[in-house]
Amino acid sequence: MDSNDRARLARFTHAHHPICAPLSDDSVTALLGRAVTTGQERILDLGCGEGAWLLRALAAHPDVTADGVDINAGGLTAARQSAERLGVDRRLGLHHQPAAEFTAAHPYDLVFCVGSTHAFDGLLPTLTAARRHLAPGGRVLIGEGYWQREPDQAALDGFEATREDFDDLPTLVDKVMADGWVPVAGHQSTQAELDDYEWAWTGSLAEWALDNPSDPLAADAARLADEHRHGWLHGYRDTFGFVTMLLRRQD
């Protein structure tokens, strides 16, 4: 599959789980409640996908403005259409480019990067990029994976990862703090949230393949769903975790 085909299939995987991370609606609401404190923030989402985080913040706070950056044109189109339906499109700017290349004429009070640190080659480079966009006293909401326990080979194979790709949670937090950040709120995804995300990811893709058997990508979609489900259930299900943290600078 080429990159366009992969991007198309990726959209199907989140048909029933619009937050592209293992977080429930209640968890998203709680995190946004901690992150958006004045209701007048200027927000940036680096790797916004279909803009789910931004759309929720804009819909809840009529004085919030936001920008989203992503390389997936289909996701940005969906974000724009959703913003129009919600009546928040005038307060949302969408930018089709790599998140690492985005520049803005003004700083932001809040920067999101939940589940997209790969765009910057890791957690600490993501925080460095976020800091460049941050206004004094601003906050970063970041979501990152970690190892809940030492991964065995089945977990590494299932996730297509190496041991070095993630830290355990204490090491992850220590690195963030050593980089000059203070966690002021956080949420570790529960096993139910992690499982719900995987069932939605694989199930949505598998169902699309069943419903569209004549599509040239149907066989690839079914294979990808099967491979992902096997890697999760037989590999990393009890090993991989996900944490979302609200951070402020020590200085």
Average pLDDT, all residues: 95
- Total individual domains: 1
Please give the radius of gyration in angstroms: 18 Å
User: What's the arrangement of strands in the largest beta sheet?
Assistant: 3-2-1-4-5-7-6
The major β-sheet equals:
7 strands, mixed
In what range is the share of β-strand residues?
Answer: 15-25%
Structural class: alpha/beta
Provide the low-confidence segments as ranges: none
Q: At the third CATH level, what is the topology name? A: Rossmann fold
Order of helices and strands: HHEHEHEEHEHHEHHE
Question: What is the CATH superfamily label?
Answer: Vaccinia Virus protein VP39
Shape: globular
CATH architecture: 3-Layer(aba) Sandwich
Instruction: Give the fraction of residues assigned to helices.
Output: 40-55%
Intertermini distance: 46 Å
Number of DSSP-assigned strands:
7
